[in-house]
Amino acid sequence: MAAAQAADTQLMLGVGLIEKDTNGEVLWVWCYPSTTATLRSLLLRKCCLTDENKLLHPFVFGQYRRTWFYITTIEVPDSSVLKKVTHFSIVLTAKDFNPEKYAAFTRILCRMYLKHGSPVKMMESYIAVLTKGICQSEENGSFLSKDFDARKAYLAGSIKDIVSQFGMETVILHTALMLKKRIVVYHPKIEAVQEFTRTLPALVWHRQDWTILHSYVHLNADELEALQMCTGYIAGFVDLEVSNRPDLYDVFVNLVESEITIAPLAKEAMAMGKLHKEMGQLIVQSAEDPEKSDSQVIQDIALKTREIFTNLAPFSEVSADGEKRVLNLEALKQKRFPPATENFLYHLAAAEQMLKI
Protein backbone atom coordinates (compact mmCIF):
# COMPACT_ATOMS: atom_id res chain seq x y z
CA MET A 1 0.00 0.00 0.00
CA ALA A 2 2.75 2.44 1.04
CA ALA A 3 4.70 1.55 -2.11
CA ALA A 4 1.66 2.16 -4.31
CA GLN A 5 1.05 5.47 -2.58
CA ALA A 6 4.69 6.48 -3.02
CA ALA A 7 4.53 5.57 -6.71
CA ASP A 8 1.40 7.66 -7.10
CA THR A 9 2.80 10.69 -5.31
CA GLN A 10 6.02 10.72 -7.33
CA LEU A 11 4.02 11.77 -10.38
CA MET A 12 4.14 15.53 -9.74
CA LEU A 13 7.11 17.38 -11.20
CA GLY A 14 6.65 20.98 -10.09
CA VAL A 15 4.42 23.89 -9.11
CA GLY A 16 4.58 27.47 -10.35
CA LEU A 17 2.87 30.84 -9.99
CA ILE A 18 2.15 33.41 -12.71
CA GLU A 19 0.70 36.85 -11.84
CA LYS A 20 -0.88 39.69 -13.77
CA ASP A 21 -0.39 42.99 -11.94
CA THR A 22 -2.46 46.19 -11.91
CA ASN A 23 -0.29 47.57 -14.77
CA GLY A 24 -1.33 44.62 -16.94
CA GLU A 25 2.11 42.99 -16.82
CA VAL A 26 2.28 39.18 -16.69
CA LEU A 27 5.18 37.71 -14.73
CA TRP A 28 6.45 34.28 -13.77
CA VAL A 29 6.73 34.91 -10.03
CA TRP A 30 7.73 31.68 -8.33
CA CYS A 31 8.22 27.96 -8.81
CA TYR A 32 9.28 24.89 -6.85
CA PRO A 33 11.61 23.15 -7.60
CA SER A 34 13.30 24.96 -10.53
CA THR A 35 12.07 24.87 -14.13
CA THR A 36 13.70 25.37 -17.55
CA ALA A 37 13.45 28.61 -19.54
CA THR A 38 11.77 26.67 -22.38
CA LEU A 39 9.10 25.20 -20.13
CA ARG A 40 8.55 28.56 -18.45
CA SER A 41 7.91 30.35 -21.75
CA LEU A 42 5.60 27.50 -22.84
CA LEU A 43 3.55 27.79 -19.63
CA LEU A 44 3.34 31.57 -19.95
CA ARG A 45 1.98 31.03 -23.46
CA LYS A 46 -0.57 28.47 -22.27
CA CYS A 47 -1.81 30.52 -19.34
CA CYS A 48 -4.60 32.79 -20.60
CA LEU A 49 -3.20 35.89 -18.86
CA THR A 50 -0.83 36.57 -21.77
CA ASP A 51 -3.71 36.33 -24.27
CA GLU A 52 -4.74 39.54 -26.04
CA ASN A 53 -8.42 38.59 -26.17
CA LYS A 54 -8.75 38.91 -22.36
CA LEU A 55 -10.84 35.73 -22.07
CA LEU A 56 -10.36 33.93 -18.79
CA HIS A 57 -9.96 30.16 -19.04
CA PRO A 58 -10.40 28.75 -15.52
CA PHE A 59 -8.56 25.50 -16.30
CA VAL A 60 -6.41 24.28 -19.19
CA PHE A 61 -4.22 21.22 -19.60
CA GLY A 62 -1.90 19.72 -22.17
CA GLN A 63 1.33 17.86 -22.80
CA TYR A 64 4.76 18.92 -23.99
CA ARG A 65 7.58 16.41 -24.48
CA ARG A 66 6.02 13.90 -22.06
CA THR A 67 5.40 16.51 -19.35
CA TRP A 68 1.75 17.22 -18.57
CA PHE A 69 0.80 20.73 -17.51
CA TYR A 70 -2.33 21.83 -15.64
CA ILE A 71 -3.15 25.53 -15.18
CA THR A 72 -5.88 27.07 -13.04
CA THR A 73 -6.43 30.83 -13.41
CA ILE A 74 -8.55 33.10 -11.23
CA GLU A 75 -9.44 36.75 -10.87
CA VAL A 76 -8.39 38.30 -7.56
CA PRO A 77 -11.36 39.70 -5.58
CA ASP A 78 -10.97 43.15 -3.96
CA SER A 79 -11.15 41.59 -0.51
CA SER A 80 -7.91 39.59 -1.07
CA VAL A 81 -4.57 40.40 0.58
CA LEU A 82 -3.10 40.52 -2.96
CA LYS A 83 -3.51 44.26 -3.58
CA LYS A 84 -1.34 44.71 -6.67
CA VAL A 85 -2.45 41.57 -8.49
CA THR A 86 -5.56 41.38 -10.71
CA HIS A 87 -5.27 37.70 -11.77
CA PHE A 88 -2.99 34.75 -11.16
CA SER A 89 -2.42 31.23 -12.47
CA ILE A 90 -1.24 28.20 -10.54
CA VAL A 91 0.68 25.77 -12.75
CA LEU A 92 1.30 22.10 -11.94
CA THR A 93 3.52 19.86 -14.07
CA ALA A 94 3.28 16.08 -13.75
CA LYS A 95 4.08 12.76 -15.40
CA ASP A 96 0.47 11.60 -15.59
CA PHE A 97 -2.76 12.48 -17.37
CA ASN A 98 -5.40 13.29 -14.77
CA PRO A 99 -7.16 16.65 -15.32
CA GLU A 100 -9.71 16.17 -12.53
CA LYS A 101 -7.04 15.37 -9.95
CA TYR A 102 -4.89 18.38 -10.77
CA ALA A 103 -7.85 20.74 -11.22
CA ALA A 104 -8.94 19.86 -7.67
CA PHE A 105 -5.44 20.36 -6.24
CA THR A 106 -4.74 23.65 -8.08
CA ARG A 107 -8.09 25.04 -6.83
CA ILE A 108 -6.98 24.37 -3.25
CA LEU A 109 -3.62 26.06 -3.92
CA CYS A 110 -5.45 29.06 -5.41
CA ARG A 111 -7.56 29.46 -2.27
CA MET A 112 -4.40 29.32 -0.14
CA TYR A 113 -2.66 31.98 -2.18
CA LEU A 114 -5.71 34.25 -2.09
CA LYS A 115 -5.83 33.95 1.67
CA HIS A 116 -2.14 34.20 2.59
CA GLY A 117 -0.65 36.09 -0.37
CA SER A 118 2.56 34.06 -0.10
CA PRO A 119 3.72 30.89 -1.86
CA VAL A 120 4.99 29.35 1.42
CA LYS A 121 1.67 27.64 2.27
CA MET A 122 1.37 26.40 -1.31
CA MET A 123 4.82 24.86 -1.15
CA GLU A 124 3.98 23.11 2.14
CA SER A 125 0.84 21.61 0.61
CA TYR A 126 2.67 20.62 -2.56
CA ILE A 127 5.33 18.79 -0.52
CA ALA A 128 2.63 17.13 1.61
CA VAL A 129 0.91 15.77 -1.50
CA LEU A 130 4.25 14.81 -3.05
CA THR A 131 5.34 12.80 -0.01
CA LYS A 132 2.08 11.60 1.55
CA GLY A 133 -0.51 11.95 -1.22
CA ILE A 134 -2.68 14.16 0.98
CA CYS A 135 -3.10 17.75 2.14
CA GLN A 136 -5.71 18.80 4.65
CA SER A 137 -6.77 22.27 5.66
CA GLU A 138 -9.89 23.41 7.44
CA GLU A 139 -10.74 26.44 5.34
CA ASN A 140 -9.28 25.53 1.92
CA GLY A 141 -10.55 21.98 1.57
CA SER A 142 -8.74 18.64 1.61
CA PHE A 143 -7.11 16.76 -1.23
CA LEU A 144 -6.40 13.05 -1.41
CA SER A 145 -4.37 11.79 -4.38
CA LYS A 146 -5.81 8.28 -4.36
CA ASP A 147 -9.37 9.60 -4.83
CA PHE A 148 -8.41 10.23 -8.45
CA ASP A 149 -7.93 6.98 -10.32
CA ALA A 150 -6.20 7.19 -13.74
CA ARG A 151 -8.87 4.94 -15.26
CA LYS A 152 -11.55 7.39 -14.13
CA ALA A 153 -9.69 10.15 -16.00
CA TYR A 154 -9.61 7.95 -19.12
CA LEU A 155 -13.38 7.49 -18.93
CA ALA A 156 -14.30 11.09 -18.08
CA GLY A 157 -15.10 12.20 -21.65
CA SER A 158 -18.22 11.29 -23.60
CA ILE A 159 -17.94 8.97 -26.62
CA LYS A 160 -21.69 9.37 -27.06
CA ASP A 161 -21.27 13.11 -27.65
CA ILE A 162 -18.66 12.47 -30.34
CA VAL A 163 -20.92 9.97 -32.10
CA SER A 164 -23.94 12.28 -31.88
CA GLN A 165 -21.85 14.96 -33.64
CA PHE A 166 -20.15 12.79 -36.27
CA GLY A 167 -22.31 9.65 -36.63
CA MET A 168 -20.84 7.08 -39.05
CA GLU A 169 -17.82 9.34 -39.65
CA THR A 170 -16.61 8.42 -36.14
CA VAL A 171 -15.17 5.33 -37.83
CA ILE A 172 -12.64 7.61 -39.60
CA LEU A 173 -11.36 8.65 -36.16
CA HIS A 174 -11.30 5.01 -34.99
CA THR A 175 -9.37 3.95 -38.12
CA ALA A 176 -6.89 6.83 -37.78
CA LEU A 177 -6.24 5.90 -34.14
CA MET A 178 -5.89 2.19 -34.95
CA LEU A 179 -3.30 3.06 -37.60
CA LYS A 180 -1.51 5.54 -35.27
CA LYS A 181 -2.16 8.44 -37.65
CA ARG A 182 -1.89 12.15 -36.84
CA ILE A 183 -5.22 13.76 -35.91
CA VAL A 184 -5.56 17.55 -35.58
CA VAL A 185 -8.67 18.98 -33.93
CA TYR A 186 -9.73 22.63 -34.26
CA HIS A 187 -12.21 24.79 -32.34
CA PRO A 188 -11.77 28.45 -31.26
CA LYS A 189 -12.73 27.56 -27.68
CA ILE A 190 -10.02 25.66 -25.79
CA GLU A 191 -12.61 23.99 -23.52
CA ALA A 192 -14.32 22.39 -26.54
CA VAL A 193 -10.97 21.22 -27.95
CA GLN A 194 -9.92 19.67 -24.63
CA GLU A 195 -13.23 17.90 -24.01
CA PHE A 196 -13.22 16.36 -27.49
CA THR A 197 -9.55 15.41 -27.75
CA ARG A 198 -9.28 13.84 -24.28
CA THR A 199 -12.04 11.37 -25.21
CA LEU A 200 -10.57 10.11 -28.49
CA PRO A 201 -7.95 7.67 -27.08
CA ALA A 202 -10.87 5.70 -25.57
CA LEU A 203 -11.78 4.62 -29.13
CA VAL A 204 -8.68 2.38 -28.96
CA TRP A 205 -9.20 1.30 -25.37
CA HIS A 206 -7.02 -1.82 -25.77
CA ARG A 207 -3.96 0.46 -25.81
CA GLN A 208 -5.02 2.67 -22.87
CA ASP A 209 -2.48 5.17 -24.14
CA TRP A 210 -3.11 8.83 -23.38
CA THR A 211 0.49 9.83 -24.18
CA ILE A 212 -0.75 10.40 -27.76
CA LEU A 213 -2.87 13.30 -26.48
CA HIS A 214 -1.63 16.89 -26.95
CA SER A 215 -4.80 18.77 -26.09
CA TYR A 216 -3.48 22.34 -26.32
CA VAL A 217 -0.88 23.15 -28.97
CA HIS A 218 0.14 26.56 -30.33
CA LEU A 219 1.55 27.10 -33.81
CA ASN A 220 4.94 27.66 -32.23
CA ALA A 221 8.10 26.24 -33.83
CA ASP A 222 9.34 24.48 -30.69
CA GLU A 223 5.94 22.95 -29.89
CA LEU A 224 5.43 21.76 -33.46
CA GLU A 225 8.90 20.23 -33.56
CA ALA A 226 8.12 18.30 -30.34
CA LEU A 227 4.78 17.19 -31.80
CA GLN A 228 6.28 16.00 -35.08
CA MET A 229 8.67 13.73 -33.22
CA CYS A 230 5.67 11.57 -32.23
CA THR A 231 4.54 8.79 -34.60
CA GLY A 232 0.81 9.27 -34.15
CA TYR A 233 -1.00 11.89 -32.09
CA ILE A 234 -4.18 13.80 -31.29
CA ALA A 235 -3.40 17.52 -31.25
CA GLY A 236 -5.81 20.30 -30.29
CA PHE A 237 -5.57 23.85 -31.71
CA VAL A 238 -7.60 27.04 -31.26
CA ASP A 239 -6.05 28.74 -34.32
CA LEU A 240 -7.77 27.99 -37.65
CA GLU A 241 -4.43 28.67 -39.38
CA VAL A 242 -3.60 25.03 -38.53
CA SER A 243 -5.94 23.95 -41.37
CA ASN A 244 -3.32 25.36 -43.77
CA ARG A 245 -0.65 23.06 -42.33
CA PRO A 246 -1.24 19.70 -44.07
CA ASP A 247 2.26 18.66 -42.92
CA LEU A 248 0.81 18.37 -39.40
CA TYR A 249 -2.11 16.00 -39.97
CA ASP A 250 -3.48 12.90 -41.68
CA VAL A 251 -6.99 13.66 -40.41
CA PHE A 252 -8.33 17.16 -39.71
CA VAL A 253 -11.37 17.64 -37.48
CA ASN A 254 -13.16 20.99 -37.62
CA LEU A 255 -15.46 20.90 -34.58
CA VAL A 256 -17.18 24.17 -35.54
CA GLU A 257 -18.32 22.83 -38.93
CA SER A 258 -18.60 19.19 -37.74
CA GLU A 259 -16.32 18.18 -40.61
CA ILE A 260 -13.66 15.48 -40.80
CA THR A 261 -11.13 15.69 -43.66
CA ILE A 262 -8.62 13.02 -44.64
CA ALA A 263 -5.38 14.48 -46.02
CA PRO A 264 -4.53 13.36 -49.60
CA LEU A 265 -1.39 11.49 -48.52
CA ALA A 266 -3.33 9.46 -45.93
CA LYS A 267 -6.19 8.44 -48.24
CA GLU A 268 -4.59 5.19 -49.42
CA ALA A 269 -3.97 3.86 -45.88
CA MET A 270 -7.37 5.13 -44.73
CA ALA A 271 -9.41 3.59 -47.60
CA MET A 272 -12.74 2.40 -46.19
CA GLY A 273 -14.41 -0.93 -46.90
CA LYS A 274 -16.87 -3.48 -45.50
CA LEU A 275 -14.87 -3.92 -42.29
CA HIS A 276 -15.05 -0.18 -41.58
CA LYS A 277 -18.74 -0.03 -42.40
CA GLU A 278 -19.45 -2.79 -39.86
CA MET A 279 -17.32 -1.00 -37.27
CA GLY A 280 -19.09 2.31 -37.96
CA GLN A 281 -22.51 0.70 -37.64
CA LEU A 282 -21.55 -0.92 -34.34
CA ILE A 283 -20.24 2.39 -32.95
CA VAL A 284 -23.40 4.30 -33.93
CA GLN A 285 -25.78 1.56 -32.78
CA SER A 286 -24.06 1.26 -29.40
CA ALA A 287 -23.76 5.03 -28.82
CA GLU A 288 -27.39 5.67 -29.75
CA ASP A 289 -28.68 3.11 -27.25
CA PRO A 290 -30.14 5.22 -24.40
CA GLU A 291 -29.68 2.30 -21.99
CA LYS A 292 -25.90 2.26 -22.47
CA SER A 293 -23.41 4.37 -20.55
CA ASP A 294 -20.29 5.81 -22.18
CA SER A 295 -18.12 3.11 -20.61
CA GLN A 296 -20.39 0.40 -22.05
CA VAL A 297 -20.05 1.98 -25.50
CA ILE A 298 -16.24 1.96 -25.07
CA GLN A 299 -16.47 -1.72 -24.09
CA ASP A 300 -18.52 -2.56 -27.21
CA ILE A 301 -15.99 -0.79 -29.45
CA ALA A 302 -13.11 -2.55 -27.66
CA LEU A 303 -14.71 -5.98 -28.24
CA LYS A 304 -15.21 -5.26 -31.95
CA THR A 305 -11.61 -3.98 -32.14
CA ARG A 306 -10.39 -7.23 -30.60
CA GLU A 307 -12.17 -9.09 -33.43
CA ILE A 308 -10.08 -7.12 -35.94
CA PHE A 309 -6.89 -8.27 -34.21
CA THR A 310 -8.25 -11.83 -34.23
CA ASN A 311 -8.58 -11.42 -38.03
CA LEU A 312 -4.91 -10.49 -38.19
CA ALA A 313 -3.65 -13.33 -35.94
CA PRO A 314 -3.68 -16.18 -38.55
CA PHE A 315 -1.37 -14.12 -40.80
CA SER A 316 1.25 -13.45 -38.18
CA GLU A 317 4.20 -15.67 -37.33
CA VAL A 318 7.10 -15.52 -34.90
CA SER A 319 9.98 -13.52 -36.40
CA ALA A 320 13.29 -15.23 -37.24
CA ASP A 321 14.90 -13.97 -34.05
CA GLY A 322 11.89 -15.17 -32.06
CA GLU A 323 11.48 -11.71 -30.58
CA LYS A 324 7.97 -10.78 -31.78
CA ARG A 325 5.15 -11.68 -34.13
CA VAL A 326 5.41 -10.43 -37.70
CA LEU A 327 2.99 -10.36 -40.62
CA ASN A 328 3.18 -13.08 -43.26
CA LEU A 329 2.16 -10.96 -46.25
CA GLU A 330 1.81 -13.94 -48.61
CA ALA A 331 -0.67 -15.65 -46.27
CA LEU A 332 -2.65 -12.40 -46.04
CA LYS A 333 -2.79 -12.03 -49.83
CA GLN A 334 -3.86 -15.67 -50.32
CA LYS A 335 -6.90 -15.08 -48.13
CA ARG A 336 -8.24 -12.75 -50.88
CA PHE A 337 -9.91 -10.26 -48.57
CA PRO A 338 -11.66 -7.29 -50.22
CA PRO A 339 -8.90 -4.80 -51.20
CA ALA A 340 -9.87 -2.24 -48.50
CA THR A 341 -9.77 -4.93 -45.77
CA GLU A 342 -6.42 -6.33 -46.90
CA ASN A 343 -5.04 -2.79 -47.14
CA PHE A 344 -6.27 -1.92 -43.65
CA LEU A 345 -4.88 -5.12 -42.08
CA TYR A 346 -1.51 -4.46 -43.74
CA HIS A 347 -1.38 -0.88 -42.40
CA LEU A 348 -2.57 -2.08 -38.99
CA ALA A 349 0.32 -4.58 -38.92
CA ALA A 350 2.64 -1.69 -39.81
CA ALA A 351 1.23 0.44 -36.96
CA GLU A 352 1.71 -2.48 -34.55
CA GLN A 353 5.32 -2.87 -35.80
CA MET A 354 4.60 -6.32 -37.23
CA LEU A 355 6.25 -5.81 -40.63
CA LYS A 356 9.43 -7.65 -41.52
CA ILE A 357 12.24 -5.13 -41.87
Automatic annotation (TrEMBL):
**In its keyword annotation, does this UniProt entry include Protease?**
no
What residue range is the signal peptide?
none
Q: Name one GO molecular function term.
A: guanyl-nucleotide exchange factor activity
Which species?
Cebus imitator (Panamanian white-faced capuchin)
User: Looking at the keywords, is Aminoacyl-tRNA synthetase present?
Assistant: no
Which keywords does the record carry?
A: Endosome, Guanine-nucleotide releasing factor
The family line of this record is:
Belongs to the DENND10 family.
Gene Ontology annotations for the cellular component aspect, listed alphabetically: late endosome
Entry protein name: DENN domain containing 10
Q: Where is the UDENN domain?
A: 1-357
The record's subcellular locations are: Late endosome
Q: Matching PANTHER family, A to Z?
A: DENN DOMAIN-CONTAINING PROTEIN 10-RELATED, PROTEIN FAM45A-RELATED
Point out the gene that encodes the protein: DENND10
Q: Name one GO biological process term.
A: protein transport
